[in-house]
Amino acid sequence: MRYKEIIESDYMKDLIKKIGPSRLKTGKPIPPNTLPSGNIKSTGTKNVGQRMDKAITKQLMRPGAKIPLPVSPNREQDFEIDKVDNDQVTLKNPRPKQGEPTTTTINQKDLEPVITNIMRRVRSQS
């Protein structure tokens, strides 16, 4: 395979003048067999997974939504979300017995394993 050398023509020079020199920033050429120093960062794929997880968590943690929580081994029960604060979630007890509170307040960090489990289920089904 042969590479063609790009020659600066009058058209290219006029185009560079129209775009402006401030927009065309090129680095100095890297000598062969040398890697650039420092970390290589790509902005396009940075934290895409974390952003998706945060969006799904926000979607799941809405008032009125139901979230399955483990009640005993191999058994889950759907709890309705009553109120969401910055770091706490209030859940309604679906079947409160006499003397039990009707709502329970839990830290959002304690619900992270449950949310990760839900996301794993969804990903495995699709």
Radius of gyration: 28 Å
**First and last CA, distance:** 42 Å
Q: Widest sheet: strand order?
A: 1-2-3-4
- Low-pLDDT segments: none
What is the percentage of strand-forming residues?
15-25%
Q: How many E-type strands?
A: 4
Order of helices and strands: HHEEEEH
Mean pLDDT: 78
State the helicity in percent bands. 25-40%
Please tell me what the overall shape is: elongated
Main sheet makeup: 4 strands, antiparallel
Provide the structure class: alpha+beta
- The helix count comes to 3
Which characteristics define this entry?
4 strands; 126 residues; single chain; 3 helices; 33% helix; elongated
In a few lines, what is going on in this structure?
With 126 residues, the chain is α+β, with helices and mostly antiparallel strands.
Set out the fold topology.
Blueprint: H1 10-19, H2 48-60, E1 66-72, E2 75-84, E3 88-92, E4 103-107, H3 108-125
Antiparallel strand pairs: 1-2, 2-3, 3-4
Q: How would you characterize the overall build of this protein?
A:
The chain is α+β, with helices and mostly antiparallel strands. Helices cover 33% and strands 21% of the residues. The protein is built from 3 helices and 4 strands. It has a 4-stranded antiparallel sheet, with helices on one face. A hairpin with a 2-residue loop joins strand 1 and strand 2. The longest helix is centred in the C-terminal third of the chain and has 18 residues. The relative contact order is 0.09.
